[in-house]
Amino acid sequence: MRTSFVTSILALVLSSAPALPAFGQEIDRTDTAETAPPLPSPRERAATPIPQGDPSWSPALSWDEPFFPNSQHDPAIPTPEAILGQAAGSRVASHDEVLAAYRLWASASGRMKLFPYGRTHEGRQLVYAVITSPENHARLDEWLASRFEGDVPAERDEQAEADALGDKPIVCWMGYGIHGDEPSATDAALILGWHLVAGTSEDVTGLLDDMVIVIDPCLNPDGRERIGTQLRQMSGYVTNTDYAAMQRGRWPYGRGNHYLIDMNRDWVTGVAPETRGRWRAIRQFEPQVLVDGHEMGPLDTFLFYPQSPAYHPQLPGTLNGWQKRFANDQATAFDRYQWAYYTREWADGWFPGYSDAWASLNGAIGLLYEQARTLGQPVKRASGEVVSYRESVHGQLVASVANLATARRHRASILADFRRARDEAESGGENADEAFVVLPGDKPERLAVLVDVLDGQGMEYSFTGGGTLTGAVGRFGDTVDSLELPAGSLVVPVAQKQGRLVRAYFEFDPHLPTETLERERRELERNDSSLMYDVTAWNIGMAYDLSCYWGTPSGLTEGAAPVDPGTRGSSGRTAYAWVVDGASDRAPRFAARALEMGVQIHLGDRPFTAAGRSFPRFSLLVRSHENGPSVARLVEDAARWAGVELVALDTGRSPDESPDLGGQHFTLLARPRVALLGGEGSSTGSFGHLWHHLDVRLGMPHTILEGLSGDLRRYNVIVAPEGMASELRSGQLRDWVRGGGTLIAVGSAVNGVLGEEGLSDVVRHRDALDEVGSYRAAARRALAAGTAPIDAEGLWSGELEPAGADFDVDEDEAGALPGGEDRDTWMRRFGPSGVILRAHVDDEHWVTAGAGSDEMPVFFEGSTALLAKDSCAVRFTAAADLRLSGLLWPEARERIGLSAYLTVERVGAGQVVLFAADPVFRGYYLGTARLLSNALVYGPGMGTRTAVPR
């Protein structure tokens, strides 16, 4: 029954399609004048659905080349055409259609088994399909368990490798569409899955005898459905070939997942649930080849590996050679269609957080390709050539088939190199005794997140009961010959199967090769353009702001992980008050929840002692008498939800000289009512990072506004992501801030509140060239404040000199810098693409609660250097000590040194909080994320003047 139905549907589709040209016949793809079918009349349009995808009536706007001209397929297996109702690859298939097709094929063929591996934030299922011969399926578990048995020849010898490895199949993991608005990859996966299940000729059966092919057909269902909905909603009866048309989507498009996280840069820490699921799934198979299908700009052609330099030093030494071999075969396949392509021009191998980089650090051959994007419909290029959506799908498909053929042809050598790469990692190579070590401290929540990352990536680690770390080097460059490790220290050794990942993700400061620096410098100086494709720093220990070291451990004894205190305390009884330790990153989460429940909370500005314990500055206090009779239940519910320890107190009297709990050192907080700005013009990445922090990390109610509109009095906190500077120049916003609002601006959005008509006294470096010296002198005074010992004898004798002489304006800094504006313009072009810098923390400011020390690592990118004298809560250190990790040219170092990272200014009854760079970049900079949490939750009470209710 099913076969006859499918056959009839397929016959109907084929009968209405134009005749296919002979294989190899040149196709005219220019936008020639052509007679289009008449448009439906207005009455007919009401009953005629708008067509989706390529217009089948126009050879110039569609692509009719057969995908597999030399292959035969089992007619009993339903085709993609039958499932989609039109030519495969001619429109964007929905995620539901992709799942339905794969489920149907898995039930119809013994070649495919389908496995779920997770769900997205929106609840869509993530699946992978294992495709191989039925015989290989029967022995797959046995083979996976024994894949590392047997010796591999030390030297490369294809025959010896083949003899040693026998008939072990090679595993290829094929991933598609990690960026949702790059849809042709997933549509290619749809067709590839059918081809491998239905193919009956040797080009398919031979592959399946020698290979296990795992297809992850849609890595980002939420993003795909977002852009797919936009494409359907903006479609019309008339085809539009303009690459810039709104018919191809609108903000926020579909690149990221639900929270707009870029999952192709998420492999370091796995913020997205999709990434966490893939970690587990891929590690089950430990593939030798991993393919990652992408799209790029619509006016481009097709890019595939090998990568451009620089290459991360932890990548296997054989990787580039294999990428060249795969590229040669792929180029041959593309030449048959006279398609344009290129390699090596961008997409370098330095950042280790891409899909293919993660695979390569696991010993595999990571491959990526980028097809010029059409977004589900034909696009006219600058030359006049028109590329249909189906042709772009075909390009992805040809690339995948070529890659699989290459992998099959070199099966034994690829397997052998994979084994050698894993063995080399397990031996540890040079400095094999080294380890990455995290000391226990006041950030147990961040340590727990780190352990979760280690578990997810299969990294080996242990907690020690004690030991010694020799040759210890800390995250701030501090060195200790011998460091005693306290109980509970986390030790991650280099000598393990995942040793390449350990070094790549935890090394403090890998250095780019000199030749790369020379190329980058030349490009910047001549063309004001960077060759670096991504950030140049990413260290997890620094991002989490943990007390971490590299060194050689010895004398380690067995220990246990530090215990997360969790929730304990009052057990529902009435108490005088309850306290939450302010050092905990979950304290703002608790406060946000409790304030939303109507609980009155105070923030202490001094350390205090209660219940036999010492609590740090900025701990939270809930007094029973200020709340209703159900307060015990409310605070326990909030504490349980936030995961904090709740300490019940029987008295407000301090047992020592610290403040009593009813005094003026405790400020009443106000319930945050948060609005997050978004919409066209804002950075989708910055917006998504902030949104994810509000919704997932903090669990705070918030409103997303498309720009500033309506009655702003409904909110007391407004957050502006990168790109929203123009929105912040509104008079309505200025009145709102002066009336008691807290404005938080991030990155380039700060420009909207600077200048003569702005809300802030902070200035940009470029706008204060005549005063740079005085700002730097003020910064040096601020950094030294309270650090000098008092000369009491000199004070009483009158011989003590006034302070400040050492911080007067240097002659070199007095007035305009040499070259003035022209020099500053020149220096701005060297702004870093992503580095980690050292910053000084004002630990007495409420916005730095939980920072834990007077220095912290801070992520920074771009060329905006902010100058401030009196409002700086976190300030970059002097230029000489500034760089911790990543590429920072001396011009950028000079401009950024002693500039402001985080400022808080009172404006009328309100305040303005400025972050010079994204504090929650890519969702994993937990150190600076705490600063943002404080601003969001504590800001309305701590930094503003709130009217007392009548």
Automatic annotation (TrEMBL):
Its cofactor is Zn(2+). GO terms for cellular component: extracellular space. It comes from the Bacteria. Residues 104-269 form the Peptidase M14 domain. GO terms for biological process: proteolysis. Residues 1-24 form the signal peptide. SUPFAM superfamilies: Class I glutamine amidotransferase-like, Zn-dependent exopeptidases. InterPro entries: Class_I_gatase-like (IPR029062), Peptidase_M14 (IPR000834). Gene3D superfamilies: 3.40.50.880, Zn peptidases. The keyword Transport does not apply. Residues 28-55 are annotated as: Disordered. One of its GO terms (molecular function) is metallocarboxypeptidase activity. This is Zinc carboxypeptidase.
